[in-house]
Amino acid sequence: QTVLQGIILLPLRVVCITFILLLAWLAASIATFCQPGRGFLPLKGWRRRMIQTALSGLTRTAYFVMGFQVKVKGKVASLPEAPIFVAAPHSSFFDAIICALTGMPSIVSRAENLSTPIFGTILSSLQPVAVSRQDPDSRKNTVAEITRRASSGGQWPQVM
């Protein structure tokens, strides 16, 4: 019985997750289409709300389809309370659920991730702080960018 369930559920889950991923890509593409100040100015208005609601909901749905049910204990810190928050040990795909539960904050990511098909578009919509491993000044530039965003008075989303 368990093997039969797996044979049926696995392809169904793969199809559902693929569909959710394509919807997330579409939402990210629409929200960042003809974006003024691409990467240098924060998303505002309907663009930011679309990223927060659509991507957060789709991410939570994808995890549900994979069989994960996440409950939040406590209260998520707001932007004024914590402009920067850390997710540790951040070594797996579970970081995405933290993003979904906290309103899709900006993240720190390798610059190479932005050129990945589909995922790169979704990641770009979060307006990440890109870290280049080839640039010797990247660490200093990353710290400066995180500081700039954290001290922007709430113009930028939280940085994870």
From TrEMBL:
<keyword id="KW-1133">Transmembrane helix</keyword>
<dbReference type="GO" id="GO:0016020">
    <property type="term" value="C:membrane"/>
</dbReference>
<keyword id="KW-0812">Transmembrane</keyword>
<keyword id="KW-0012">Acyltransferase</keyword>
<dbReference type="InterPro" id="IPR002123">
    <property type="entry name" value="Plipid/glycerol_acylTrfase"/>
</dbReference>
<feature type="compositionally biased region" description="Basic and acidic residues">
    <location>
        <begin position="134"/>
        <end position="148"/>
    </location>
</feature>
<keyword id="KW-0472">Membrane</keyword>
<feature type="transmembrane region" description="Helical">
    <location>
        <begin position="12"/>
        <end position="34"/>
    </location>
</feature>
<feature type="compositionally biased region" description="Polar residues">
    <location>
        <begin position="149"/>
        <end position="160"/>
    </location>
</feature>
<dbReference type="GO" id="GO:0005783">
    <property type="term" value="C:endoplasmic reticulum"/>
</dbReference>
<dbReference type="GO" id="GO:0006629">
    <property type="term" value="P:lipid metabolic process"/>
</dbReference>
<feature type="domain" description="Phospholipid/glycerol acyltransferase">
    <location>
        <begin position="70"/>
        <end position="153"/>
    </location>
</feature>
<dbReference type="Pfam" id="PF01553">
    <property type="entry name" value="Acyltransferase"/>
</dbReference>
<keyword id="KW-0808">Transferase</keyword>
<comment type="similarity">
    <text>Belongs to the 1-acyl-sn-glycerol-3-phosphate acyltransferase family.</text>
</comment>
<feature type="region of interest" description="Disordered">
    <location>
        <begin position="133"/>
        <end position="160"/>
    </location>
</feature>
<protein>
    <submittedName>
        <fullName>PCAT2 acyltransferase</fullName>
    </submittedName>
</protein>
<dbReference type="GO" id="GO:0047184">
    <property type="term" value="F:1-acylglycerophosphocholine O-acyltransferase activity"/>
</dbReference>
<keyword id="KW-0443">Lipid metabolism</keyword>
<dbReference type="GO" id="GO:0042171">
    <property type="term" value="F:lysophosphatidic acid acyltransferase activity"/>
</dbReference>
